[in-house]
Amino acid sequence: MAASEQPRATEEDSTKDESLLEETPESSFDAAFDLPPLPHIEPPKPTLPWYLQNRPAPEPTQAASIPDLPPNPPPLLQTLLEYVANTAGMDDLLIYDLRHLDPPPALGSSLIMIICTARSEKHLHVSADRFCRYLRREHHLKANAAGLLGRNELKIKLRRKAKRMKMLANVGGAEPEGNIDDGIRTGWICCTVGKIQAHPDDPGFGPARGEGEGFVGFSDVKPGVNIVVQMFTEEKRAETDLETLWGGVLKTHERNEGKAEDMIKALDEQIEGADLEAEVAAEDKREAEEIKSRPEPVSEPVSPPAPTPAPTPVFNTPRPTAGDAFPDPSAFNNRQQLRRLHTVGLRV
After folding, report:
1. Are 82 and 116 in contact (CB under 8 A)?
2. C-alpha span between 50 and 47 (Å, rounded)
3. CA 155-159-160 angle, 5° bins
4. pLDDT digits (tens, 9 = 90+) for 296-316
5. pLDDT one-digit tens code per residue, 188-202
6. 89: closest CA among 115, 121, 119, 125?
7. In angstroms, rounded to a whole number, what is the distance separating the alpha carbons of residues 324 and 332?
8. Any idea what DSSP says for residue 51?
């Protein structure tokens, strides 16, 4: 009995101590410093493992930026740009409108060039291959991708390269250093889409040269717009720098076109001035002819003036002078005078 009573006493003492601890006020330390009571911490709830949790909804990714279309774009150009930027995942797209260049580029007349950048060599080849298959399947276009390695061709070339390196290692050779063109790492694929339908307002929308009436000869120029997609890796794009090349060509063409427009405007002004002068001269001539063609007014007949009588000549008898050689005849009656003339003679 005594042994059974002792454990009961110990259990009662422990319960009393716990009740005293719960009912006692704050400790002397907490009361001295006036600290707030400790927060009540709930026990951790059982959580689901990560593979049973609901995944958060994925945030919509930002679409790749597509450059502005040139004036009078082909109807298919927007679709091609969206595929290259969003589906193929190309970056840094640029568009060069080379339709108005004269002479045209070597890639073809009425050309629109698209330049884009791939993330890696593998991304470049996969995107170019899928782009060509997409054009052939969806739009029935026979695209030509220069520099593209086929799906099995790349494996064959890599296997041959590894075999060649193994043979060099067996004879003590080393792999050549530097950027050597081995036909595998091209870094540049030129995908020529071909001719597509032009915009109705585009000059290239009309009939092709050689289809009109009266044409004699051969011609392979077809209507439409040529599309070329230049795909690069980042290093190859910086090395090739097609932006500087075609940007300079376009600036030179715009400058020459501006000069030609100024010359044409000056010629038009000269022609307008000459036409205006010709119109003024023709107007003056027409007015002169109208004046000449007018009937003259009929005037009454005017009698001719009476002729003036001729003046009658008046003769004056000259008067004799003092030394006249012939004296007055009335003086001959005087004999004395005659004698004097006979003896003295004539006065000088």
Report:
1. no
2. 9
3. 120
4. 666 666 677 777 777 777 777
5. 999 999 888 888 877
6. 119
7. 14
8. G
